[in-house]
Amino acid sequence: MVKKTDWSGILEHLERVAAKGKDMVWCIAGAGNGGISMAGHLGLLGFPVQIYNRTDEHLNAIRWYKGIEVEGAVSGFGPVRLATSRIGEAIAGTDVIMIVTPSTAHYGLGTLMAPFLEDGQIVVLNPGRTGGALEFRAALDREGCTARVVIVEAQTFIYASRMISRNKGHIFRIKNGVPVSALPSFLTPAVLKVIDVAFPQFIAGSNVLATSLENIGAVFHPALTLLNAAWIESTGGDFEYYLQGISPSVARVLQAIDDERLALARALGIRTVSAREWLYLTYDSVGADLCSAIRATISYAGIKAPKTINHRYIWEDVPMSLVPMASIAAMYGVETPAINLTIDLANLMHGVDYRANGRTVHTLGIEGLSVEELHRLVTEG
C-alpha cells in the first residue's frame, strides 16, 4: 500500500515560483564535478545560488572567492551566496533543490532533508539513474516527511563536465535535450515552467519509469569499464575512454545490455529510445551501429578513462542502475542475462555483493505491484 498525497494548491504554487524568474532561489546539493559546474552556471545566469556539500572543507575555496568560475561551453564567474555543510541551512527558503551527487547518496540525502523540506519545493535528481525518484520518495515516507515535495528525475546529467579545482569547473558540452519527469507525472509541465527558466534543455519525459529506463549510463559505463580493466590498470586510465575503449566486440556486449533494457521497457509499456538513437538525439552522433555511433561522438573527445576500476562507473552504476533493472525485470518475468553477467563480473572484481546493497523493488517501495498499479503510482502519486 503506497501513501497518496494531496497535491491541491501545489500547481498554483509552482506557477508563482515560475513567475519569480531570476529571483527564484536554487540549492545545489553536491560540490563535485557536476555540482561545481551547475552552481557556477546558475550564478553566472544571475540566480541566487546556495550550495551544500557533506565535506565542509571542500567548500572553503567557494567561500573564499564567493563563487565559482566556469569555462568551456559557458565561461565566467558565478556568485554563490551560501556554501554550507548544514543541510537544513542549505535548503531553507529555496525553490529548487538540484541534487548533483552520485546516486548512492540519494537515499541518505532524502533522510537528511526530510525534516527540513517545505511544501512546493522541487527536488531534482541529476540524474536519478534507475528508480531514483521512487527511492527518494520511499526515504521521505520512511522518515515521516509530511511536506508536499515535488520529486523530479532527470534521465541523464545535463552537462558533460569536470571539476578543475574546488571552485572551478569545465563544461565540455550542454546536452541538446534532457527528459525529466515529476513524481507524480501530471506535475511535469508545471515543473518545467520553473526549471526551464534556467535550463531550457530540460524537456518533458512521460513518467519516472521512462526516465529511469532511459538510463544510458547503465549501458555505457559498467561493462565498458570492466571490459577495459586491464588497460585501465596498466595505464592508469591514460586513454580516450569512449573513443578508444570501444571496439566492435565490446560494443556487442553494450548492445546486449541495451536490448535487455529495451525489453524491460516494453514489458512495462514504456516507449524509449535505443542507446544509438540517444547518441543522435543528445550529441548529433550518427553511426550504422553502436560502435560507430560512439566513435562519432565529438563531445566524447578528451574524456579519459577512469584511473582505476574502483570508480563510480562500477560502484554507482551497478547497484543504482543495473541491479534495479534486474530486480524489476525479475518481478515481471523479463530475462536479463547480459545485465546479470555484468553485475556478477563487477561483484568478482570488486569483491562486493552489489545485489545486496543496491536498489531493489523492495527498497523502491514497489514490491508486488502489478504493472497497472505501478503506472498509477507514477502518474497519480
Looking at this protein, list some descriptive labels:
about 375 residues, N-(1-d-carboxylethyl)-l-norvaline Dehydrogenase, domain 2, single chain, alpha/beta, Rossmann fold, about 45% helix, four-stranded mixed beta sheet
CATH homologous superfamily name of the largest domain?
NAD(P)-binding Rossmann-like Domain
Shape: globular
Number of strands: 12
Approximate helicity band: 40-55%
For the largest beta sheet, what order do the strands appear in spatially? Answer: 5-2-1-6-7-8-11-12
Number of helices: 18
Low-confidence stretches: none
Mean model confidence by pLDDT: 95
Strand content: 5-15%
Oligomer: single chain
Radius of gyration: 20 Å
The run of helices and strands is: HEHEHEEEHEHEHEEEEHEHHHHHHHHHHH
- Measured between the Cα atoms of the first and last residue, the distance is 12 Å
Any idea of the CATH topology of the largest domain? Rossmann fold
Please state the structural category. alpha/beta
